[in-house]
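re the bet — no i am not wrong, look at it urself. input seq straight from the record:
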Amino acid sequence: MTLNSFAPKSFFALIATAAAAFPVYAEPKVLPDPSSADFCVAVQHLLANTDIDATNEIFDNMPDYRASKPSPEPLMIYQVVTYDDKRAIAVSCKVKTADHIRAVYGEDAAGEQLYCPSVTEALKAQAVAELEKENPPEVADRARGFVVDQNEPYMMGSNYLADFQLSYVGDDGAIHLNSPGLQTNWEDWLLWIMPNRLRGQTYCHLPTVSYIKALATGALEPGTVITTVDDAPTKAPY
């Protein structure tokens, strides 16, 4: 497990500016390496449009990740990475909602709430930018044509933790990227009956840049299934 605090405010001001112009990103390389504890901190800042300091814990097993619950004060968030036999293919983040951050730190502490597909758009843009430097133009063009599904977030943890396809070929013939999540807004009166520890949460499963690039180059075929069972591959193979 790794603990890390990360808050270079100018860096995340750039992310917030880029997110405000979604889906156009002036600078595509906005997210850290997926194995870094900085990754879900960046996701927290991006999704809640905030620069509040966050401490992120990376788990090396799914049972601990499944049981974790982010807390607002101090801002504590959680991360786990899924690997194949060569690379990190997905990152799962549990962070706090913008409205809960505002409730704790004040109205200026967070901005517009964004959702998991916004992060996937940024990851896709980063993958395209890297492919343009490393491969013939048609490879980057292939990635550019990937469709980021606008997944509606779940409200139940059991749905968020269910198996899903990280990518698939749609009826349109294009490769689609999934980024399912969970959203329980702090100020949603329909959720007031829920325990406080379950409210004000944003969870995401996200494809990595290396996964998107592997799909574009043909190193991987679409259809990868992500699971959160106890023996899920959450340790790097290298």
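see?? The longest strand covers residues 88-96. told u. also Helices lie at 9-20, 38-48, 62-67, 98-105, 116-134, 137-144, 157-160, 209-217. so pay up
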